[in-house]
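User: Quick sanity check before I run a bigger batch. Here is a single chain. Can you write out its predicted 3D structure?
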Amino acid sequence: MARIISLEEVKKHRRKSSVWIIIHNDVYDVTNFLTEHPGGEDSLLDVAGKDGSREFEDVGHSDDARELLKKYKIGSLNPEDRISVVLPCSKLKWALLALAGALVVGVVLKKYLGSK
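Assistant: Done. Predicted structure follows.
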């Protein structure tokens, strides 16, 4: 069974000597990854002890990075402390998709209704 970790416990790990972060309600100890992180240790220290889901997604991590992240997972956030993060990029993606669909429908309607 996965270890359940409280938000209060995560908040205690926000120094270079112990860096825990939350990504999509899972808790990761990235202390040993600080010097290896391609974005530099500051980007991890900025979200140390708190939820970094938005920052993680905003960067657009590769599948390899997501696979590597699994190595550092130490547990899951306590269900009472879970955070629902609505990522702006996902809203934007759907808005763009809806706009593209509307444009296609508009072009098709103009072609068929305007040709009479």
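The beta strands are 4-5, 14-15, 18-23, 26-29, 73-77.

User: Great, the batch can go ahead then.
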